[in-house]
C-alpha cells in the first residue's frame, strides 16, 4: 500500500497532495538545486574490496553459469551493483582477516603473476565494465622484504620494487592497467617510502598510477602533507577507513581528493543495507568524500570465519551453486547506475529537514541524478564507528531546479523501502516518472527509504533465475590434486589461514605423488595481524562433529620438520593463533603428538611413530563423540584419546613451522 501510495503521488502533478483526514501535516521543506554558481567536488565512484583477506576465496570454485551470474550482479553496468571501482589485496602470504592471499614473489628470486584469484577477478570485472577503476593495496609482505624484521620500510627501495613489479605484472601478463596504488593497509606509513614509490612508478613509465595514502585515519597523513610539500605533491588521494561520514580540517586544507577507501563491513541484512545507504550519501554530505569503497565485495568465505556475510552479496557455497543477492546490492544500484566517475556533485547542504540526506550529481551535459535516503538510526548502524543518536520523521520535500536544470520536464524514479516490521522490503523498483512543473516537484518521504530521481533512462533491475538451494558441504569429500594445468594455484575449498598451500608438480616422484598440494611459505611474513607460528588450511563444514580425515603427507624439512591433519578446528582468520581442535602431528625426528590446539601447548598424547622426512606416509584421524584415534600407514598408532571440546569444527592440514611440506589424497568422511 505504501508503495502504491508513493506511485500515485509520483504519477500526479507535484502540487501539494490532499492531507489524510485527521493526519498530522507532514513536515514540509524546500531545497534548491542550481549549477549557476559552479559545481561541487568531482565524483570518483563507488566500489568494493576483494581481499584483506581471502574474501573471494570460494567464489572461484563456483560452476557456471552461477559464477558468471554472481560477477554480473557485481560488475555489469545497468544490471545490479554496477560497481565503478574494484580494490584488491596485493597478496602478502599472510593472514589478512579471513585467510592468506599468495604473493607474486614468495621469495626474492621468485616471480609468478598467476597465483591466487585477484588477477582473474580484475579481468572478469574489466570484461563486464572496461571503465572500472582498479586499486591495489598490500595488507602484508613476504618476509624477505624486511630481511627478518616485521617492517616493510627498512629497505624502502625493495618494497617499492616489489609493489611496482605487481603493477607491471598486471599489465604484462593480464593487460590490466592499475589506476591507484596504496601504501600499507591500516598500518604506519613512511613519507620516505611514499616518495620513493612515486619515483619508482615514474621510472617505470607508470606516471598515470595515482597514490592513495594512508588507508588508515585522516591523521597523521593530512598534517604531514601540510608540512611536507614534497609528500603533498606525490599523494593524490587521502583515503580514510570507517570515517563515520566525518572528515577533519587538515584533510580539507590539503585540497586533495578525500575518499572513504574502506567502509561498511557490516552484516548484509537490511540493517547492513541501511548502513550502506546512509554512508553512500553522508560520506559526501558530512565529509566531502567523493568515493566510498565497501569491505567486502562478496562474502565468499566460510561464514564462521571473522565478519561472516559482511559482503555486498553472499556466495559461500560453490559445492551447491547457491548464492544470495542481498539488499546492499540494490542500494548500491541507486547511486552506481545513475552516475559515473567524472560526474560532479552539486553544491548543496544535503541534509533533509526531517532527517536523512540527499546528494545531486551532474555529468555537466544536462543530466541530473538526485539520491535521497531517510535511514533511521537503529536501521542504519554500521559495524563501526558508534553512531550518535538522531531522528528521522516522514516529511514532504519540494525541490526547485535552477540553472541548466530548469528545463527538465520529467525525472525517472527508482525506489527502495526497507521494511523492518513485515520483513518484505521493496528494493530498487521503478515507479512512474515524476513531472517537473516550472522547475519544481515534491515528494512525500517515509522513513527507511531510498529514492533516485534522474534524467537517465538506462537503469535496469536484472534478475537471473533462482540459483540452486543451499546445501551443506559434502559429508564425503576427496581431492587427489591430480590436475596438470589448474585454473587457479590453490585447490578448491581449502581456506589457508597461515601459510600458502599451492598445487605442486613433484617432477622427481616416480609415480603416485607427481601432483600434490604443497605449503610454500618458508619465512614468517611481514604480518598484518598475529599469524600463527604454524601453517594451516581449513576445509569443510564448521558444524561437523564426527569425522575421519585421511591424508598422505611428506615432510621436507629434516630434523625438526613436522605436519598435521586435524578435525573439529574451531577458529581462523585474525583469531588463528587461538585455534583449538584435535590435531594429529608427526615429526621428522620420528615422534608424534596429539594436541587440543594449533599452538601445540595442550598435549593429549605423544610417542614414537617412526616417521621420517622425505618419505610419504598416510595419516588417518578418527573422531567419534568424546574419543579420537589415529592411524599411520593403515595401522593403529594411538587410540582412546578423550576430546571434550571443541564440540565441532572444520577439517584442516598444515605444518609445524614455515616450512615446505606436501599433502596428497586428502579424504574426509
Question: How would you describe this structure to a colleague?
Answer:
With 669 residues, this protein is of the alpha/beta class. The chain folds into two domains: 44-322, Alpha-Beta Barrel (TIM Barrel); 477-668, Exo-inulinase, domain 1 (Jelly Rolls, Sandwich). It is 16% helix and 31% strand. The chain is built from ten helices and 35 strands. It has an eight-stranded parallel beta barrel with strand order 2-3-4-5-6-7-8-9, surrounded by four helices. A hairpin with a 5-residue loop joins strand 14 (357-362) and strand 15 (368-373). Helix 4 (156-174) runs parallel beside helix 5 (191-203). It is globular and about 90 Å long. The two termini are 52 Å apart.
Summarize the topology:
Layout: H1 2-11, E1 27-33, E2 45-50, H2 66-75, E3 85-90, H3 118-128, E4 133-138, H4 156-174, E5 180-181, H5 191-203, E6 210-216, H6 221-227, H7 229-234, E7 237-241, H8 249-253, E8 257-264, H9 270-285, E9 291-295, E10 298-299, E11 313-317, E12 322-324, H10 327-336, E13 344-345, E14 357-362, E15 368-373, E16 395-401, E17 410-417, E18 426-435, E19 440-445, E20 449-454, E21 477-479, E22 495-498, E23 501-505, E24 515-519, E25 535-539, E26 547-555, E27 562-569, E28 580-587, E29 591-597, E30 603-608, E31 616-624, E32 627-632, E33 635-642, E34 650-655, E35 661-668
Parallel strand pairs: 1-16, 2-3, 2-9, 3-4, 4-5, 5-6, 6-7, 7-8, 8-9, 10-11
Antiparallel strand pairs: 11-12, 13-14, 14-15, 15-20, 16-19, 17-18, 17-20, 21-35, 22-25, 23-24, 24-35, 25-34, 26-31, 26-35, 27-28, 27-34, 28-29, 29-30, 31-32, 32-33
Helix pairs in contact: 2-3, 4-5, 9-10
GO molecular function: galactosylceramidase activity
Keywords: Disulfide bond, Glycoprotein, Glycosidase, Hydrolase, Lipid degradation, Lipid metabolism, Lysosome, Signal, Sphingolipid metabolism
Enzyme class: hydrolase
